[in-house]
Amino acid sequence: MNLKPLLVAAAAAALATSTYAKNLKVGMITTLSGGGAGLGIDVRDGFMLAVEQSGRNDIEVVIEDDQRKPDVAVQLTDKMIQSEKVDVLTGIIWSNLAMAVIPGAVAQGKFYLSPNAGPSPLAGKGCHQNYFNVAWQNDNLHEAAGAHANSSNYSNAFILAPNYPAGKDALSGFKRFYKGDLAGEIYTKLGQTDYASEIAQIRASGADSVYFFLPGGMGISFLKQYADSGVDLPIVGPAFSFDQGILQAVGDAALGVHNTSQWSKDLDNATNAAFVESFQAKYDRLPSLYASQGFDTANLLISAMEAADVSDQDAFRAALKAANFESTRGDFAFGPNHHPIQDIYVREVIKEGDVYTNRIISLGLEDHSDAYAAECKM
Amino acid sequence: MSWVLLIEQTLNGLQFGVMLFLMAAGLTLIFGVMGLINLVHGSLYMIGAFAAAVVAAASGSFLLALAASLAAAAVAGILVEVTVIRKLYDRDHLDQVLATFALILIFSEGTRWVFGSFPLFLDPPDYLSGTVFLPFGIEYSRYRLSLIVIGLAVAAGLFWMIAKTRIGIRIRAGENDREMIGALGVDITLLYTLVFALGAALAGFAGALIGAIQSVQVGMGEPVLILAFVVVVIGGIGSIKGALIGAILVGLTDTLGSFLLPKLFSLILAPSAATSVGSSLASMSIYVLMAGVLLVRPKGLFGGA
């Protein structure tokens, strides 16, 4: 009789009871209802998949819906900290909610791991040692798009984004890298669904390409109307308008469009292949970049738990900072302001059978950091 | 800026206006005839779009999808009227707002429960996609042109119905004096249900038509609902004519405002500042229009004296 497996199991059990005596409690506040729910649901599902795969039973996740409203998010945060007594907070999708929640949470000694929103103030002057962004700084994908416009030899781009802080970050990120002229620059209303007027202006502008940042439903409307307008200038965009959740609703209109992303389902590494397969098996749909961000966030947290106990804040912080986990993105490291240093790719929308999805066509920016890191004094 | 662009933008404004009219017509009739503030109208718009998307996906026919949107929204409207709204006619407006707001939440989460949070696919049919060339070298979307024609045809049909048919006479009578037409033996309960179903069907129809060029998703109705209320206030409560004029005014103001104001400011400001100031002012423009109309005519353009 071979006793070895039994001994290993017993040792592992002993280790588990000694090292992981204390449970870690995570408060996830994300958008699960209303117009932006698709993003929050993907982050949640990705996160929970990683927790489940880790096989650990010492992680407790409390999930609440912020309804995309800053006031609700703030209330929920107070509840999480005061009555749930969570150790780590995560989940927020939208930058305006992040600005309302994160500074207060980290000031109360909690860790915040952002799975999506990366507003510029929190990457620069407002950075904090307990705040880690596992997705990107808001400007990143737009900067890569600007660089891609250069390498595609576009010299007269027409750019548009919604008139709100992340929209302005988007266009300034694009312009930071784009070297050509602008045929036009438009700020649309947030939540606008009809782009006939903007498309008419694009037609009349003499532009040679179009760059737009219109996340969620806004992007669906724009693309469908653009395809129907007879304007056939090439389009470049960030991944947010071409993620897995909305491509099926856009349909043929998105085919062939180039977009920039830090993740793609065909990224060639073992972690990602396993992630895509298991996500599809569990939820019966393809993961989006938001799902990959949720998955990475949970794995980062788990890697830190393996190295340190959350009650020892300094050790736990150092373990987070080390980012010693297998990311779906391949290489992943934190910069001095706790924002990712990562490759950003250019993807193309394709059709695989009946399903619209993306594939990588080139590397946009390598080991890209953000423009605000220098302002961060931690 | 060329004339061609200006004409194209005017057409865009007109198209936006006639679609708003489909929403506002039902809203103004329901408010005019029953005195009911109906926030659930936006949900009926959403129901129409979802019904159309489902039927289009199953059958591949856009016309069948439009028919489904009319039917689904009308049925939902009748159900809502019979089960909830009917009990609210004698209550004050605050109760109505509360109850119909609750219905918005129920419909939104119910739709999410059935269809999920991800948007559905609905496209214009092939015979309406692409562009047409109008005189003076204007290239314009065939689908949007069809929307203008359909919208104006529905408006003409509504005018004819209100002015010439027996049901139209009853609706007008109901607006003026609902106790009296009840006393004259008209079945007022049935009339209310009919008007509600008509308004609901129009909203659902608009949802399907617009859903084909926008996105069919939960919560798509509420922004349109707000604009439709602006139209009703500008046009005058209960007036179909007011709803049409108001809708076209709002459509033109919104489209031309967001197009011309940034250009106007670029004459005196730096380009990026002009875009920013111009777009901010443009998003206010229809509310400025509403305030202006109310200053001169507190009951709206065609509101009762």
Number of E-type strands of chain B:
2
Question: Which regions of chain A contain 5 or more consecutive residues with pLDDT less than 50?
Answer: 10-21
Overall pLDDT score of chain A: 89
Largest interface: A-B, 35 and 49 residues
Please estimate the helix content of chain B.
over 70%
Inertia-based shape of chain A: globular
N- to C-terminal separation of chain B? Answer: 43 Å
What's the tally of helices of chain B? 11
**Major sheet description of chain A:** 8 strands, mixed
Tell me the fraction of residues in β-strands of chain A, as a range: 15-25%
Strand percentage of chain B: under 5%
Average pLDDT value of chain B?
Answer: 88
Please compute the radius of gyration of chain A using only Cα atoms.
Answer: 21 Å
What percent of residues of chain A adopt helix (DSSP H or I)? Answer: 40-55%
Largest sheet of chain B: 2 strands, antiparallel
Written overview of the protein:
The complex is a heterodimer of chains A (378) and B (305). Chain A has 13 helices and 13 strands. Chain A has 378 residues and is of the alpha/beta class. In chain A, helix 9 packs parallel to helix 10 (244-250) and helix 12 packs across helix 13 (313-322). Residues 10-21 of chain A have low confidence and may be disordered. Chain B is mostly helical. Chain B is built from eleven helices and two strands, in the order ααααββααααααα. The longest helix of chain B has 32 residues, at 3-34. Chain B is globular. Chains A and B meet through helix 2, strand 7, helix 8, helix 9 and helix 10 of A and helix 1, helix 4, helix 10 and helix 11 of B.
Provide a concise account of the structure shown.
The complex is a heterodimer of chains A (378) and B (305). By secondary structure, chain A is an alpha/beta fold. Helices cover 43% and strands 21% of the residues of chain A.
